[in-house]
Recover the amino acids of this structure.
């Protein structure tokens, strides 16, 4: 490789950061079995014969809603996913994909309508020509629509 050639590199930002197991809290996020999860239950056992209190974590995958569990010594570090939420105005729908606009006016058309009750609610609002926004949660290179917000119509 010559001096004039450059290799592309990422931003250097990690998708996770370490946090001590005892510092995690219910309704926070943690990586369980390699998946980003929301903590729904946490119990801590007493210090045992070998000197470590254990934390039993139960989490729900934020994208698939699968349940995961893990046990970790309270003094050890666990990975916490960097999560980001962003609101988008829903413009329309085409073949199962939503057309969304952010605050800066950028349009994206790459997010599929979610499965289940949330998807049915979005379809109903589209059918009624309601104005509404969706919140998109991003973590670990994945994105999903997680909530709906009604917007006030301007008269």
């Amino acid at each position: 490789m010559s001096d004039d050639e450059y290799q592309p590199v990422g931003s250097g930002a990690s998708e996770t950061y370490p946090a001590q197991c005892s510092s995690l809290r219910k309704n926070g996020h943690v990586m369980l079995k390699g998946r980003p999860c929301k903590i729904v239950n946490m119990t801590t056992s007493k210090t045992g014969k070998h000197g470590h209190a254990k934390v039993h974590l139960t989490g729900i995958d934020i994208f698939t809603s699968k349940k995961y569990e893990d046990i970790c010594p309270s003094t050890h570090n666990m990975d916490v996913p960097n999560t980001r939420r962003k609101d988008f105005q829903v413009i329309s729908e085409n073949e199962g994909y939503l057309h969304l606009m952010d605050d800066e006016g950028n349009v994206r058309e790459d997010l599929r309508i979610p499965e289940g009750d949330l998807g049915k609610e979005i379809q109903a609002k589209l059918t009624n020509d309601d104005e509404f926004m969706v919140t998109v949660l991003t973590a670990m290179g994945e994105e999903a629509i997680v909530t709906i917000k009604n917007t006030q119509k301007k008269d």
